[in-house]
């Protein structure tokens, strides 16, 4: 599945907050796309995700973000 990042013409934000946004494996990639497109360079993204026992993809969320250079 190919994911297109959100439009680069969108506003950028200092903080992005999300909760319960990962329900399947592909969601990690889409959320990472949104963070890349919408977060200021020195911004902060805070996410509360469900347990990997009940939400597919949660276990790979951190590695997806780290692979894109987030820390």
3D structure, described in words:
By secondary structure, the protein is of the alpha+beta class. 34% of the residues lie in helices and 24% in strands. The protein is built from 2 helices and 2 strands, in the order E-H-E-H. The protein has a two-stranded parallel ribbon with strand order 1-2. Strand 1, helix 1 and strand 2 form a beta-alpha-beta unit.
Short characterization:
This protein is an alpha+beta fold and 71 residues long. It is built from two helices and two strands; from the N terminus they run E-H-E-H. The chain has helices at 25-38, 58-67, and strands spanning 13-19, 39-48.
Mean pLDDT: 87
How many H/I helices? 2
Strand line-up across the major sheet: 1-2
What proportion of the residues is helical, as a percent range?
25-40%
First-last Cα distance: 25 Å
Q: Tell me what portion of residues adopts beta-strand conformation.
A: 15-25%
Number of strand elements:
2
Q: Whole-number radius of gyration? A: 12 Å
Order of helices and strands: EHEH
Coarse shape: elongated
**What structural class results from the helix and strand content?**
alpha+beta
Unreliable residue runs: none
* Main sheet attributes: strand count, strand direction, barrel closure: 2 strands, parallel
């Amino acid at each position: 599945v190919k994911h297109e990042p959100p439009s680069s013409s969108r506003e950028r934000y200092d903080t992005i907050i999300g909760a319960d946004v990962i329900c399947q494996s592909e969601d990690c990639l889409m959320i990472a796309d949104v963070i890349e497109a919408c977060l200021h360079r020195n911004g902060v993204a805070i996410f509360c995700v469900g347990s990997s026992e009940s939400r597919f993809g949660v276990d790979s969320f951190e590695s997806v973000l780290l692979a894109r250079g987030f820390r």
